[in-house]
Amino acid sequence: MIRAGRRDVLTGLAAGLVAAPALALAEPAPIRIDPDRELMVPVEGGQVYVRINGDLQAPRPPLIYAHGGPGGGHAGLLPLTALADERAVILWDQLDSGRSDAPLDPRNWRVERFVDEFDRIRDALGIARWHVGGGSWGGTMALEYGARQRPGTASLILQSPLVATKRWLADAAILRAEMPAQWRATLSACETAASPAIAQCDLATDAYYAAHVVRSRTPAVIADYRAAHPARAGHDLYQRMWGSSEFVSTGTLRSYDGEPLLARLPGARTLFACGEWDEARPATIGDYARRVPGASFRVIRGAAHALTIDQPDAYLALLRRWMARHDAA
Questions:
Q1: Bridge-partner residues for 52, per DSSP?
Q2: How would you classify the pairing of strands 46-53 and 63-66?
Q3: What DSSP element (H or E) covers 159?
């Protein structure tokens, strides 16, 4: 999961390990900080901010990609805009996140309402066919959307998705048990009535993030872009839907189980991807992929959860190849 604020970083089985090349043969396409077009799209509960880079009328179907959270924002996905040299890229802030409306009405904080945002954006932009992706909580949204079997979905990209809360927390427990004893002891103490100072708990949690969420420094242009977002955008949403701790879910997602939806995904048009050091453990994501006949599974070497920050060139190269294979109807 991508925690709002501190973690707004914050996409037959064929399996493989994808590594960033040691020496690039060509300059990677630059990310596009400024949108070519932006608009507010009405959804249930308010309006969401949408930005587009590239030509929606281009021959190749566009890509829409959902951010993590709940309550994150699209800033960490800006490296995806480099794909706009061959197709349109659509990013947005979900309701109560980033630059979108923030009614802070708990009645809006339902999985199905968030998933509906895909189609509200599709209707507003008049898109007949597109690739649908998302990372972390955005991967949950893409999972749910794929299971709806909407016509015009060229392919589905599930990057480091939350598929079932119970298994997500089990993976977090496994990774936490592998941390140095100092951090394990602090995290355990932080869950008791005699908790250490908040600063100590934050240091221990940050050690987990540095190992399994994002291992690289966020580029300055993305950090500056993110800093322009509302200061606490998504905080209440994250607290209400997930909870206050990475390791315990107390919110409305605490019993979420999307595993039955795997059987309804579009088989060979489904890509599962995660990082080598991802908190969405490769063993778990690979297992999910094996349960979708014909799906593909790729692990990005050197990346944790934030593939677009840790290894953007390797991940974008994977997405280019994947979407090109599935552009045709």
A1: 37, 90
A2: unpaired
A3: strand 153-159
DSSP result, 6-34: TT------EEEEE---SS-SSPPPPP-SS
Q: What is the pLDDT along the chain (329 residues), one digit of tens a residue?
A: 655 444 443 333 344 555 544 433 345 568 999 999 999 999 999 999 999 999 999 999 999 999 999 999 999 999 999 999 999 999 999 999 999 999 999 999 999 999 999 999 999 999 999 999 999 999 999 999 999 999 999 999 999 999 999 999 999 999 999 999 999 999 999 989 889 999 999 999 999 999 999 999 999 999 999 998 887 778 899 999 999 888 999 999 999 999 999 999 999 999 999 999 999 999 999 999 999 999 999 999 999 999 999 999 999 999 999 999 999 97
Tell me how crowded residue 209 is: count the other CB atoms within 10 A of its CB.
21
Q: Can you tell me which residue has the tokens 């063993």? A: 283
Q: Which residue has the tokens 């749910």?
A: 144
Quick check: 316 and 16 in contact, CB under 8 A?
no
pTM of this prediction? 0.93
Residues belonging to the active site: 136, 278, 305
CB neighbours of 44 closer than 8 A, spacing ≥ 6? 108, 113, 116, 120
Q: Mind spelling out the 3-state secondary structure of 262-305?
A: HHHCCHHHEEEEEECCCCCCHHHHHHHHHCCCCCEEEEECCCCC
